[in-house]
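[job 0412] stage=complex_fold ligand=N-(iminomethyl)-L-glutamic acid status=START
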Amino acid sequence: MADWDTIWINANLATMAGTGMPYGKIENGAIAAKCDRIVWVGSMDALTGKPDTLANHVVDIAGKWVTPGLIDCHTHLVFGGSRASEFEQRLQGVSYEEIARAGGGIVSTMTATREASEEALVRASLPRLSNLIREGCTTVEIKSGYGLEKSAEIKQLSVARTLGESLPVNVQTTFLGAHALPPEFKGRQADYIEQVIEEMMPAVAESGTADAVDAFCESIGFTAAETEAVFKSAQAHDLPVKLHAEQLSDLGGAALAARFGALSADHLEFVSEDSVLAMAAAGTVAVVLPGAFYILRETQLPPIDLFRKHGVDIAIASDFNPGSSPVPSLLLMLNMSCTLFRMTPEEALAGATRNAAKALGLAADRGTLEVGKRADLAIWSIGQPAELAYWAGYNPLHTLIHDGTAIDFDAQLVSPGLAA
Ligand code: NIG
Ligand code: FE
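[job 0412] stage=complex_fold status=DONE, emitting C-alpha cells
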C-alpha cells in the first residue's frame, strides 16, 4: 500500500498560492491527496519515486489545468418563487428601488419563501446548487433573508444545511434577518431590528444553523445604526459578520463593517476611499458582485483601483438571488468581473478561490493548492488559466474533486427537470 490515496500527474497547476509566479503556476506538475487533504504539490521532476509507488491511484490528466475548487462566497440560493414579472417591469423602466418600495422585491420572495415547505425549498434549490457544482464550485455560501421571521429564517438556514448534506459541496450559511422590513412591521423598523436581535439571533445561534451574520445597509434596507446593533448582537453570539454595503448609495457601511472586523463587505459600488482604507486596515475582503451590477444595469463601478491601491483583497461572487442576480453561475462572474469591472483574469480567479475563502473565514483550510488544505480540485480542459475568464457561457470543467474524491455528476447532481 502506498502512502497517498491519489496522485494526479502531468498536470498544469494554478495553485493560486503566493509563489510570485502568475496564478502560482506550476507547469508539468503533480498533486496528491490523502483522505480529504492535499499532501503533495510540486513539479513532476521533484517526485521522490514512481507515482504508483507513492499513491494507490494514479490519474494522468495529460496537461489539463488544475485550480482550487471554486468558492461562491455570496448567494441567496434558497428561495421560493421567481421574480420574472419584476424583470419584465424593470425592462419597462420601473427601478429596483421603486419595486421594493411598492412592496415587491425582497418582500415578494419573502411571501413565497414563507409559504414553501422545507421539502419544497430543498427540491427547488438542488438543481440551482448542482449548477454551481457543475461549473467547479466546491464551497458555496447561502444566506437566509427571505423568511424575515424566526421560524422562516431558520427554515431557510436548515434547508441550506440539508443541501450541503445532500450534494457533494461544502455549504456555509449566513443569517440575514436584517435584509428587508417585513410588511407586518411597516412603520416600525426599530421594532423589527429589536426582534432580529432579541428573538431571531439567539434562536439562530442556538440552532447552530448559521456560520455568520449579514445585513443590508442601504436606503431601502437598514441604517448604519441599525446595522451596528445587529453586529453587536452577532458578536455577543460569537458569530462573525459581513455586510451588503454601498450597493446603491454610501451609508458608510463598509467602514462600519471594518470596525467590527467583518470578514467581507459586499457590492461596494458607492464605497468611499476612507472606507476602503478602513477595510484594508481590518483585513476585510471586498466582495464584488458583477451579476447584480449587470442585471440592474448599474453604471457606478466598484472602485477596483482603490482596492488594489490600498491592498484590499477582492473576491467575486454570483450573488445568485431571484431579484438582482438570477444567475447561478460563477464562471460567468469570472468573465463579467473582467469585462465589466476591468479585473484581470488572474484577479478574477483569485477572487473565486483564495480571496473567496478569506471572505468566508476559511483561508487556512481552502482556496489554494497547498499541502494541508482541503483536496478540492477543479480540473479544466483549457490551455491556459485565463480561459476561465475568457469564455462566456461555456463550461470547460473536466472533473471536480471534492474532499479528495471525484464527483459523478450524473449520479450525484440534480437537473432542473428532476426537481419538480
Ligand atoms: O445582494 N441587496 C440585497 N440583497 C440581494 C438582492 C435580494 C433580492 O433582490 O431578492 C443582493 O442584491
Ligand atoms: Fe446579496
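The mean pLDDT is 97.
[job 0412] exit 0
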